[in-house]
Write a structure and sequence with these properties.
Elements: E1 2-7, E2 10-15, H1 18-37, E3 43-47, H2 54-60, E4 71-75, E5 77-79, H3 90-99, E6 106-108, H4 117-130, E7 135-138, E8 162-166, H5 169-177, E9 190-194, H6 196-200, E10 204-209, H7 215-223, E11 241-246
Parallel strand pairs: 2-11, 3-4, 3-7, 4-6, 7-10, 10-11
Antiparallel strand pairs: 1-2, 5-9, 8-9
Helix pairs in contact: 1-2
């Protein structure tokens, strides 16, 4: 069973389980990749790194007919100051789950160990300008953030592609809740993140948000006014965005046969 509805321009799909969410979202992203590859030599994809993406990532690498050697891969945020090989690093997370499993044309990592944060923001922003995103595979945070645009820092009209942000306590606690760190004291306080406009510039957005701990954030995303206080609400203005929920994250919206 699947329940589908629309809020503004955002298509919302609710599934009975995380696994069904992962299978379906991966199939639909795979189909979009193959569709775009009919007319483009290379396509550019931005990936999110979080446990909420596990089922999607597991299934996207199983899609047949995708020319991975014609895909340039990017990710949307990275902690500042973690050791290079730290498993909590978002580049390392994606490397283990997808980047080493397929022959991408290029994989472009944000450098959280950079000597100059300002120079790194410019460098990665230039890559995004030179390789406009065709697909963004994303999630939302327990506080409604997109990438690391927590509610105290987002700007729907940011003029830059990448910026340095201070992480709020709810965001840092989510990393503990997800099992990535054992205590909030271990979670870095700063990160590099793609800005809201950098994400919204993607031609096609696929947002995977399973789990009961995201239920309130999903409710706010769908029901609140579109405002920077609730960063994820901005997805409702995008012309090609799909939100994938499971029965737990979408518990306030019901599940019924269509």
């Amino acid at each position: 069973m699947t329940h589908t509805f629309k809020k503004d321009k955002l298509i919302v799909k609710i599934f009975e389980s995380r696994e069904e969410l992962g299978i379906t979202s991966a199939k639909e992203v795979g189909n979009k990749i193959k569709e775009l590859q009919l007319n483009q030599q290379f396509i550019n994809i931005i990936f999110a790194a979080a446990p909420s993406q596990n089922e999607f990532l597991k299934n996207i690498i199983r899609q047949d007919g995708v020319a991975w050697n014609r895909i340039n891969a990017f990710h949307m945020d990275e902690y500042i100051g973690l050791p290079t090989e730290a498993p909590q690093g978002f580049g390392n997370f994606l490397k283990d789950r997808i980047f080493v499993n397929k022959p991408f044309h290029s994989v472009n990592y944000i450098n959280g160990q950079c000597e100059s944060k300002a120079i790194e923001c410019i460098r990665y922003g230039k890559l995004l300008i030179e390789n406009p995103a065709d697909i963004v595979c994303m999630g939302i945070g327990e506080n409604g953030h997109l990438a690391f645009n927590d509610p105290h820092v987002p700007n729907f009209n940011d003029k830059v592609k990448v910026k340095v942000v201070e992480l709020d306590s709810l965001c840092r606690q989510q990393q503990v809740n997800d099992g990535c760190f054992t205590s909030i004291e271990q979670v870095p306080t700063q990160a590099l993140t793609l800005t809201i406009p950098a994400l919204l510039n993607g031609k096609h957005l696929f947002c995977m948000v399973p789990g009961k701990n995201k239920a309130q954030a999903v409710t706010n995303m769908i029901n609140q006014e579109i405002t920077e206080r609730f960063p994820s609400t901005i997805l409702r203005v995008h012309s090609s965005a799909i939100l994938y929920l499971d029965i737990k994250s979408g518990e306030h919206f019901g599940l019924e046969k269509t």
